Amino acid sequence: MRLPSPISRLLVQFQPWLLPIAAFAGFVELVGGGWDIQWHLARIPEVFWTPPHIVLYSGASVVIATTGAAFLLPWAGVALPRSFRLATSLAFAGALLQVVAGGFDQWWHATYGADDALSPPHVLLTGAILLAALGILLSLHAMRRQEEAAGRTRAVSWIAQSVAATGVGWALWGLLFVTLSPGFNADDKLLDPFGWSLFVGGAFAMTTPILVFLAGRLVQHRGAATLAAGVQVVGTLTIAGLMGGLDPLVLALSPIFLVPGVLVDLFYKPARGNAPYVAIVLGAIIGQFSFLTGGIVDAMTLPASQPVAFALAYVGGGVAATLLALALGDAADGMAARDRGARPATAS
After folding, report:
1. Domain positions in the chain
2. Between residues 183 and 33, which one has the greater pLDDT?
């Protein structure tokens, strides 16, 4: 099947910009999602068309359009490697699932009014956002490999991929929130209350290490991890400002959250033989930044009550996130290498 010529020409013309736009739109969507979480916690009466929902679904609409266009590129006559086609299919599938989740959420609000975090449409939505964010990140990885093979490098590509890495970390945070935050009030947990708090703390400790190591491992550009951390800081401050709770002290201290990215950019060198061991140590250290995040996770877990126990839980979460990011990078490079008929490249 071949798309009509006018559509094909349009897709080819915008091809270099589709995925970068998707990455930035995806992060706008996640800011809307974070704002929506704060909206729920503030118990503000709502219907479906709240300001956070408008931001969230506006970003989602752009993600659907851009990932859908990237998905259609093979039918516009563009020769693309298998790794790119699979990644864009993943991104577009996640985007379409968000449409389903949006309709489900609208029906849920109309039927039941304001809902708790753990509702079926919220689980479906956050899972779909994570799927789309991962697909965008991997699509940009495949796109940059194509550009490098053609002897081209574009700043917008690695910047967009760094933003996409932040999107994966934030989408993971959202999925953890809607699945775990109601659980600390439940009576049927497999763990005792303290054990459950440690588990929740360790799970949330994964989010910052995974985004900085995805940037460090997949983007492999000087400053990529720091940029990913910086995007996270900007997003967090934006949500606080939208809720009218931007504390000047928090604003002044916020640069400390650039440190995880700086550490990865300075000490993690994927091409070196000791890179996995350095990454594990850094992941354990970066996990400790969970002590500084405060807010929702602190209220759920109370880490100051048992700092040694939570430090160990944060080590576990940080190391697990780091290993997951490195494995994802190896898999992405392996697929790209098979596209060329070569042996898969490794991080070491």
Report:
1. 1-184, 189-333
2. 33
